[in-house]
Fold:
Amino acid sequence: MEGNLSSIGAGMAIGLGALGPGLGIGMLAAKAMESLGRNPEAAGPIQQNMILAIAFTEAIAIYALVVAVIIKFV
Structure:
C-alpha cells in the first residue's frame, strides 16, 4: 500500500511541478514573439533574454523532478 501511495505522490509532484514552468515558458515565448513582431531589430537581445529566462524556468521543473524521484525511492 505504501508503494502505491508514494507512486501517486511522485506523479502528483512532477505533474503539478511541471504545470507552472510549462505555462511560464508558453507565456514567455508568446511575449517574445510579440516583441519580435513589434521590433524585429531587437531580435538578438530578446532571444538572449528569452533563453536565459527559459533556463531559469526549467530549473523549477528539474527541482520538481528531483522531489518526485526522492518521494518515489526514499
